[in-house]
Structure formats: structure tokens, C-alpha cells
Amino acid sequence: MFKIDETNNVGETLHSHSDRAERGIEKINKECEAVGVPLPEYRTDALGLMVKFHAQVTLTGKTPVETPVETPDQILRMLDENPEMTLAEVASKIGKSLRAVERASSKLVKAGRLRFVGPKKGGHWEVKDNS
To answer: Region Disordered: which residues (predicted)?
Structure first.
């Protein structure tokens, strides 16, 4: 937004903002071309300039983050040594986020290498296979 008052020349102010907008549009177009994405659509109305980008997104249903081999092994080792540990405690001990440990332990459960026995509070982990 810009402010026009009695000290500003309306024509100069509008011309200045128009030039900046034009340079901004040129920069956007140049960056889009550089990375090989379609140029955006530009639209103006009483509220200002609207820029609509077109992106091609491919959803695979899989997490984009690969779980390193070390994380599952660290989890199995920790829970084998202390089956009453919580996943939050495991995450803290191995220096990973809770979400990363939850994701890796979920894969271990699905693979049949880890199992939680008992209620959420008071239960314990069983490590099926430590290889």
C-alpha cells in the first residue's frame, strides 16, 4: 500500500509503484522459467494484484522422508534394554523427534519386529527380532 497526501505528486507515486510491480512480475516470470514451472496468471482488481501459480503436485500416499536404517535399530536396542520406556523417552535418548520415532516404531510394528503389550499406561514393549 502507498499513501498519498498533500505533499505527494499522485502521478509520480502511481508511476513509482507501477514500475516496482512490473519489475516484480519480471522477476517472478524469470524464476518460474529458470525452474521450469508454468508462468503464473496475473489479475488486478480494486483490491490490488492477484498472482495465481500453477503447480503440478504428485501425491504418492507415502511419507517424503526416508527413515534412516540407524533409527529403527536404535529404537529396538533401547526398547530391548528397557521395555517400559516411552517413545518420547526413546526419542530424547537417541536425539530424534518424537514424530520420527513414532513413524519408525510404527514401521517396526507393521514388520512384526516390535510389539506393545498391555495398556497404554503400564504396558511394555517386546522386541521380536533384533537383527
So the answer is: 1-22
Cα torsion through 19, 23, 24, 29, rounded to 10: 140
As a whole number of angstroms, the distance between CA 23 and CA 85 comes to: 58
Rounded to whole angstroms, the Cα distance separating 1 from 92 reads 47
> b or e along 10-45 (b: 16 or more beta carbons within 10 Å of the residue's beta carbon)?
eeeeeeeeeeeeeeeeeeeeeeeeeeeeeebeeeee
> Each residue of 2-38: pLDDT tens digit?
454 555 554 554 455 566 777 888 888 888 888 888 8
